[in-house]
Design a protein that fits this description.
Helix content: 25-40%
Radius of gyration: 15 Å
CATH topology: Heat Shock Protein 90
CATH superfamily: Histidine kinase-like ATPase, C-terminal domain
Strand order of the largest sheet: 1-2-3-5-4
CATH class: Alpha Beta
Order of helices and strands: EHHEEHHEE
Structural class: alpha+beta
Number of domains: 1
Oligomer: single chain
Length: 147
């Protein structure tokens, strides 16, 4: 992120127990920006969805690394990048469609839709066999001022 004020990166195994860890890291990173409860919840939910995609889809029946990098910038903007080196997404446009999933009947296919609805911007880049990078941005309101 251009003009970043702070940056934190964490790498953790793609195990379901680490989904909560990623949410907590994002919440702790946002604390100095004084987010509203809704903003905090939005970011934590988006992070949860992105990390869950890595766990369920990117590495399927194996464990690999998930890298989460968070930037805070001027004007209270936050950028969160979730990256894996898993199987990649064959068709990103299709994967971003609501209800589309490769995860079977027990998956809703709403991960990207949820991320997009809770964040100000979302980009997804993926290379089959090499991994996926999800970039999400959100502007955190400055208390007492309009966004």
């Amino acid at each position: 992120m251009k003009n970043s004020i702070n940056k934190v990166s964490v790498v953790f195994p793609s195990k379901s127990v680490n989904e909560g860890f990623a949410r907590s890291c994002a919440a702790a990173f946002l604390t100095p920006l004084d987010p509203t409860v809704d903003e905090l919840s939005d970011v934590k939910t988006a992070v949860s969805e992105a990390v869950t995609n890595c766990i369920v889809h990117a590495y399927k029946d194996t464990v690999g690394d998930v890298c989460m990098t968070m930037y805070s910038g001027e004007k209270n903007e936050v950028e969160i990048i979730i990256k894996d080196k898993g199987c990649g997404i064959e068709d990103v446009t299709q994967a971003r469609e609501p209800m589309w999933t490769t995860g079977g009947a027990d998956r809703s296919g709403m991960g990207f839709t949820i991320m997009e609805s809770f964040m100000d911007s979302l980009s997804v880049k993926s290379v089959k066999g090499r991994g996926t990078t999800v970039k999400m941005k959100k502007r955190i309101s400055v208390r007492g001022k309009a966004k």
